[in-house]
Amino acid sequence: MPSGIGPVANPKPDSSPRPASEPEASESSRLIKRHSLGTRLWHWTNFLCLIVLLMSGLQIFNAHPALYWGEQSGFSDPFIAIHAQAGNDGEQRGVVRVAGYTLDTTGVLGLSDDNGQLRQRAFPRWATLPGDKWLTMGRNWHFLAGWIFAPSVVAYLLYTVISRHRRGSIFPTRRQLRAIPRTLVDHARFRFHHEADYNGIQKLTYVLVLFVLLPMMILTGLTMSPSINAAWPLLTELFGGRQSARTLHFIFAFSLVGFFFVHIALVLVSGVFNNLRSMVTGRYRITERPAGPVNREDSHE
Amino acid sequence: MSKPESSGPNRSRRRLLSGMAALGAGSLLAGCDRITDNASVKRALGSVEQLTYKAQRLIASRQALAQEFDKSQIAPVFRPNGTTNPQEDYYRAWVESDFADWRLTIDGLVEEPMTLSLDELGAMPSRTQITRHDCVEGWSCIGQWTGVPLADLLDRVRPRDQARFVVFHCADHTYGGSDLYYESLDMVEAYHPQTILAYALNDAALPVANGAPLRLRAERQLGYKQAKYVMRVELVDSFKNIHGGKGGYWEDRGYDWWAGI
């Protein structure tokens, strides 16, 4: 049997003395220190910040639930609009219009339950911070979390670029890139290898999130500020106008939501205890694999 | 809140760890709404405004200009917001007489208070700028404004040394409430070259919907700073005794005084 069998391939009852996600002792596993205290603090700070930023962002979006391309708002022809309108039967329906297509989203988007009453609001009250329609408080939360989030992202990225050790743990090696097809097949079979280093897919994903999505969130966010526009007009040019920046801010935000769900799913199926422990205490159990070439990842090419 | 008494000495660390993320997220959602209502939390959230204000003052120099646009980019209709048709008797009378009897008063902490008619304002050197209006709600609209640079008016009335803010008193009761609309700028923003009192939009006299006969344009600030129906400009050292004391109609209702973001 190959090593690195995940909890799905070999499930154990919850009452087992050994957590289901940990490999058998006979497979020669050991605990390593995977995440530094800084990384762990950064991870959980970001987790809190991103939730506050997302929910307060949806509150702000609700104040004008339409997105446009360019410098200004072409009110008659938005790229995306979420609102309520009368359906064929005269009843109010919640709808999302995207580039000409209309989707009925009653109950969630456009028209949803607001304290026991169906009300027009783009995102429902459970998704916004605060729950009530309250733009100023949404802005206050957004800027508070932004002031924690943005400096910590910038500091972390600088450190990651400067530190040789961090570079090695985030940027994929050529060997890892070549192994990506093999890693994909393993993932599709729910075979997760517990190793000290991330695999190529993980690394590419983290590079995309850390060096593209997070900086883009900050930059498109800054581009919506009129004072920043005066200070750094290049930003508006870069994104093709303030309304484009606002639309991209929304698209990048939902890309992060997408990453979040994939991330959670993989944390759950690839050994939730081991993964969570590594991000809380720093300790991660890896499986020592036999030295024979058959089981080596790079021999499968 | 009651907690289930399931925790014994043998509770596995695994369950603790696994529950942490879910617990954190769950209590965050419930907790944020609760603490939003706490007065000191409101103050703490508001203090972030000071940080943003100072940071933006640091990076946007006194002279940094808001982007100006081409005539071809002017929106077909400049979207009016807030009050669009004041119903006050005095205002209706001004509209009837084409603002012939209307006067702008500039007073407060100045050496030489003055009143000016629309014709006198029109005779002063003017500035025309095609700029983007950014509403706090999120939308933007481009229009061309012509008016008197506020700096020129301030030079004529000569602010005293104690003057720290310029307050703009308006003619309209927003949403029929009891408070007149008002707004304010600090001296840096007041003397900015693109800060003008505009009497024309897109080469025509300012329409009633957009603030006739005179409105503020402070182009590095959000829309709610752009006071319409301006009647009086007052220089002050503090907002304490003006309406709600926060320096603006929306500020009195919780919005940030610093509208640069």
Describe the structure.
Chain A is an alpha+beta fold. Chain A has two domains: 217 residues, Up-down Bundle (Fumarate Reductase Cytochrome B subunit), CATH 1.20.950; 57 residues, no CATH class. Chain A is built from ten helices and eight strands. In chain A, α1 runs antiparallel to α2, α2 packs across α6 and α6 runs antiparallel to α9. Chain A starts with 28 loop residues before the first strand and ends in a 14-residue tail after the last strand. With 261 residues, chain B is α+β, with helices and mostly antiparallel strands. Chain B has two domains: 42 residues, no CATH class; 191 residues, Sulfite Oxidase, Chain A, domain 2 (Alpha-Beta Complex), CATH 3.90.420.10. Chain B has six helices and ten strands. In chain B, β5 and β6 form a beta hairpin. The radius of gyration of chain B is 24 Å and the shape is globular. The two termini of chain B are 38 Å apart. The N terminus of chain B is likely disordered. Chains A and B meet through α1, α2, α7, α9 and α10 of A and α1, α2 and β4 of B.
CATH architecture of the largest domain in chain A: Up-down Bundle
Proportion of strand residues of chain A: 5-15%
* β-strand number of chain A: 8
Largest sheet of chain B: 5 strands, mixed
Question: What's the N-to-C terminus distance of chain A?
Answer: 19 Å
Biggest sheet record of chain A: 4 strands, antiparallel
Largest interface: A-B, 49 and 54 residues
The Rg value of chain B, from CA coordinates, equals 24 Å
Helicity of chain A, in percent? Answer: 40-55%
Q: Could you list the spans of chain A in which at least 5 consecutive residues all have pLDDT below 50?
A: 1-25, 292-301
Overall body shape of chain A: globular
H-E order of chain A: EHEEEEEEHHHHHHHHHE
User: What is the helix tally of chain B?
Assistant: 6
- CATH C-level of the largest domain in chain A: Mainly Alpha
The domain count of chain A comes to: 2
Percentage of residues assigned to helices of chain B: 25-40%
